[in-house]
Amino acid sequence: MQVFVRDNNVDQALRVLKKKMQREGVFRELKRRSAYEKPSERKAREKGEAIRRMRKLARKKLQREGLLPPPKPKEKPVRRPDTFRSPAPAGASAVPEAGKTQAS
Q1: Chain-centre distance of CA 103, in angstroms?
Q2: pLDDT, position 46
Q3: How many helices (H) and strands (E) does the chain have?
Q4: Which of 7, 34, 48, 99 is a good FRET partner for 72, with 20 to 30 A between their CA atoms?
Q5: CB-based contact 30:50 (threshold 8 Å)
Q6: Which pLDDT score is estimated for 74?
Q7: How far apart are CA 94 and CA 51, in angstroms?
Q8: pLDDT digits (tens, 9 = 90+) for 24-42
Q9: 37-59 tens-digit pLDDT
Q10: CA Rg value for the chain
Q11: Which of 30, 32, 27 is nearest to 46 (CA)?
């Protein structure tokens, strides 16, 4: 797994790495292996995972055939502008807009 650091921005590279690891299931696997799992618990977990996989495949098949509506598109969360990120661009100025005057 590779993540490239652009413009010495290590924080962003770490975020990308964590997201990739999350998608691959690395954190889930670490948590699962952190303690002993009894064979009966392992069988129950694997059986549940297999059932979820089969249901997901069946749902996708029905969606492809048009028997189920397609999944709703996920809405991206609205991000607030980060005031601490970087200073204003070089062309920006702190001059009030036209028509608005300050009281003296």
Answers
A1: 47
A2: 95
A3: 3, 0
A4: 48
A5: no
A6: 85
A7: 60
A8: 999 999 999 999 999 999 9
A9: 999 999 999 999 999 999 999 99
A10: 25
A11: 32
State the DSSP string of 59-99.
HHHHHHHTSSPPPPPPPPPPPPP-TTS-PPPTT---PPPTT
Cα separations in angstroms, 18 against 24, 52, 91: 10, 25, 35
- CA 40 distance to own-chain centroid: 33
In the numeric block, which tokens belong to residue 64? 């492809």
pLDDT at 41: 94
Exposure of 35 by Cβ count < 10 A (0-12 exposed, 13-18 middle, 19+ buried)? exposed
What SS3 state is found at 44? helix
d(CA 73, CA 66): 17
Helix (H, G, I), strand (E, B) or coil at 43: helix
Maximum C-alpha span of the chain: 79
Polymer length of the chain: 104
Cα 75 to Cα 60: distance, rounded to the nearest angstrom: 20
